[in-house]
Design goal:
This protein has about 375 residues and is an alpha/beta fold. It is built from 11 helices and 6 strands. Strands 1-2-3 form a 3-stranded mixed β-sheet, covered by helices on one side. Strand 4 and strand 5 form a beta hairpin. Helix 2 runs antiparallel to helix 5. The longest helix has about 35 residues.
């Protein structure tokens, strides 16, 4: 069914980061979500009112909130497609994150309201009227919610959207909560145990949990979370695939929303290479990054001395000392600054956040390792904290 809807309404399958394609997929998800959830709200609302069941009414209101979430999702994908302008030079793709945050707020609001109604039902219980029609409606809604879960999940795999991932998770939660409602009605009907309000309260807790989780997932990219490790690896592999590139470091990735990713890094090339040739190489790599990974990449050219025997020896010794100290450490921008009286070793050192050693301790350990080799040069180290 998912493939049929995609072929019917979108037809063309393209890059997951293409704004137009993402908007088309988001529009399809929003329309389907609105239609299905409004249908469930109407049917469950009437059923819950006639049966006098707070848990069924709670489930109906939850479906109404899901319809509202789909409207916000639809609007978010539409606004995210707007091009860059004078006030927003990096585009509007973060509207997709903001729509997810609005959905999370709506879910939390509904969850707290349902909790209040369920507590009132626990304090003043009344047996619900459970019929074969009620059973059939709840069973049908279970099947529809299960399909919606798989539908949103399938679309999420195509465009990797936090909003669609949340919609799939929410539909799964709805499936579980409706199952609980059905079980509570059966228990009340055949065993006379009234747990309607308790089930409603549990559903409210599940809705609130989903809202909190969605809030955390959508706030994180807005605050500037760490880039996807797979994207970092692809960028490094792309740059290092060129035979003239000797190394890369200081990779920074800035996420302005899906399809709007900007990155910068330093690329090391031999100082003996022609600068114009190096410029052409960097231009080609930047173009490949945009075409292959949809990343706007800016590369800083770092010339590296490769024909100085003393430089090569000291670089190897320093790198060996660093690796013996901790394999997670990495060095770049190594230089030998030769003065009239002494020579200094200057370099940058990338240190993981998890490494529990002070910069002074690391510097002393490297110096002592070099001193044992008879190479006690003064060290000037610039420490970079990395994930």
């Amino acid at each position: 069914m998912t493939n049929f809807l995609l072929k019917l309404f979108i037809q063309k399958n393209t890059d997951s980061q293409d704004p137009a394609y993402r908007a088309a997929v988001g529009r399809l998800a929003g329309i389907v979500g609105i239609f299905c959830n409004l249908l469930l709200f109407a049917v469950k609302g009437i059923t819950g009112f006639l049966a006098g069941s707070i848990s069924i009414l709670a489930d109906a209101v939850n479906n109404l909130s899901d319809a509202g979430s789909s409207i916000i999702t639809l609007l978010g994908f539409h606004l995210a497609q707007r091009p860059a302008d004078l006030d927003h030079p990096y585009g509007h793709a973060r509207y997709e994150y903001l729509s997810g945050l609005a959905v999370a707020y709506l879910i939390l609001l509904v969850g707290f309201e349902l909790a209040k109604s369920s507590i009132a039902k626990i304090l003043h219980p009344a047996p619900p009227v459970f019929t074969a029609l009620t059973f059939g409606i709840l069973l049908g809604s279970l099947l529809l919610k299960l399909w919606l879960c798989r539908f949103f999940g399938s679309l999420d795999k195509r465009i990797h959207s936090t909003v669609l991932e949340a919609a799939s998770l929410d539909s799964r939660n709805d499936f579980l909560s409706t199952s609980a409602v059905l079980i509570s009605c059966l228990i009340g009907r055949y065993w006379g145990i009234q747990i309607d309000g308790i089930v409603g309260l549990c559903m409210a807790g599940l809705i609130i949990y989903s809202g909190v989780r969605m809030t955390m997932d959508t706030i994180s990219p807005l605050l500037g979370k760490r880039a996807d490790p797979m994207l970092i690896k692809k960028l490094q592999t792309l740059v290092l695939s060129h035979e003239k590139i000797l190394g890369v470091h200081d990779l920074l990735v800035h996420d302005y929303g899906p399809g709007q990713c900007f990155a910068s890094l330093h690329a090391e090339l031999s100082a003996q290479e022609d600068p114009l040739s190096c410029h052409d190489i960097i231009d080609d790599i930047e173009s490949d990054a945009l075409n292959q990974l949809n990343v706007h990449l800016v590369i800083h050219y770092d010339p590296v001395v490769t024909d100085d025997p003393e430089w090569n020896t000291m670089r190897a010794l320093v790198n060996s000392a660093i690796q013996q100290l901790d394999p997670r450490l990495s060095m770049h921008d190594f230089r030998m600054v030769r003065g009239a009286e002494r020579t200094k070793l200057v370099f940058d050192l990338a240190v993981p956040y998890s490494l529990d050693r002070s910069p002074e301790d690391i510097k002393l350990s490297i110096y002592e390792a070099l001193a044992q080799q008879g190479k006690a040069y003064p060290l000037v180290i610039h420490f970079d904290a990395v994930p």
